[in-house]
Design a protein that fits this description.
- Helix content is about 25%, strand content about 15%.
- It has six helices and five strands; from the N terminus they run αααββββαβαα.
- It has a five-stranded antiparallel β-sheet.
- It starts with a helix and ends in a 22-residue tail after the last helix.
């Protein structure tokens, strides 16, 4: 938060410098960035439920990033292999992640680097991949039926 460091370096609050206090009074981070999501580090994907657009102007679609369980898979011919309670244990390597868009497995970068990526709750994610997808299959004219195409507002019938 550079604003706080700059105001502290400018002097005490009662220093009588109205230019500095007026500039930073209206630009507090809590008010300025209230609606924004925190910045993503593109080399560190985070597991979670998301929605994203496959193309610009296309409807939102559910996506998930999850961490694979590090498994020590026993060899069938090895009698003295690891005990089943030790099969899922931390390994000495980086965690492995996978991603799915609309239930189909895709590259992790396809999801994590999308500009339209937005974190959602588990309930919204389950709604988008469950009831909404079933409804879209029954209504092929709906924009959600073809999430890879941009929405044409002229082609959608009016609500009333």
């Amino acid at each position: 938060m550079p604003c706080l460091h700059l105001t502290a370096a400018a002097g005490p609050p009662d220093s009588g410098n109205p230019g500095i206090s007026a500039v930073y009074a209206g630009s507090l981070p809590s008010r300025r960035f209230a609606g924004r999501q925190p910045a993503r580090i593109l080399i560190r994907p985070e597991p979670g439920f998301y929605v994203m657009r496959l193309r610009s102007g296309a409807p939102l679609i559910g996506a998930v990033i999850y961490r694979l369980c590090p498994m020590a898979i026993p060899e069938p011919t090895n009698v003295a292999g690891p005990h089943p309670s030790e099969w899922c244990r931390p390994l000495d390597r980086s965690p492995r992640y996978e991603a799915r868009i609309d239930g189909r497995r895709v590259a992790i970068d396809r999801v994590w680097t999308a500009r339209s990526l937005r974190r959602v709750s588990r309930e919204e994610f389950e709604f988008r991949i469950g009831p909404l997808r079933r409804w879209a299959r029954d209504n092929p004219g709906a924009p959600e039926a073809t999430p890879q195409r941009p929405v044409d507002l002229d082609a959608i019938p009016p609500l009333f």
